[in-house]
Amino acid sequence: MSDDRLTEIAARVAAATPGPWLQRSDAGIVTDAEDHPLAVFGTSGPHCVDAEFTAHAPEDVRWLLAEVKRLTGRLNAVEGGQ
Fold first, then answer.
1. Nearest to residue 54, comparing CAs of 78, 28, 73?
2. Cβ atoms of 31 and 22 closer than 8 Å
3. Which backbone phi and psi does 65 adopt, to 5 degrees?
4. Which residues touch 46 (CB under 8 Å, ≥6 apart)?
5. Structure confidence by residue, pLDDT tens digits, 1-51
6. What CA–CA distances, in Å, run from 55 to 23, 28, 32, 75?
7. How many CB atoms sit inside 10 A of residue 44's CB?
8. What residues contact residue 13 under an 8 Å CB cut-off, 6+ apart?
9. Which residues 6+ apart lie within 8 Å of 48 measured at CB?
């Protein structure tokens, strides 16, 4: 994965509505902390899992970006030591 791609992903996360993003209980609706709707997948059933995924996405992506950065640093340290 290129540094440019990671930079683009980080920029999209930074530009998104600040969190936390929340899934309304038993509904496929994602809101911001002030209960403004961000995404509506439906009101019940299978849409709830999509809403849960979306509600967690910003924090999950931040964690994944940090993990890529950490692992890239470790890889560079190992490759630099050879």
1. 28
2. yes
3. -60, -40
4. none
5. 678 999 999 999 999 999 999 998 878 999 999 999 999 998 777 788 899
6. 6, 10, 9, 32
7. 9
8. 58, 61, 62, 65
9. 23, 26, 27, 28, 41
Polymer length of the chain: 82
Say how far residue 15 (Cα) sits from the centre of its chain: 12
User: Peptide bond preceding 46: is omega within 30 degrees of 0, i.e. cis?
Assistant: no
pLDDT at 82: 58
Rounded to an integer, what distance in angstroms lies between the CA atom of residue 10 and that of residue 2?
13
Q: Report in angstroms the alpha-carbon separations of 27 from 16, 39, 73.
A: 22, 11, 41
- The set of residues, in sequence order, having a beta carbon less than 8 Å from that of 59 and lying 6+ positions away, is 19, 20
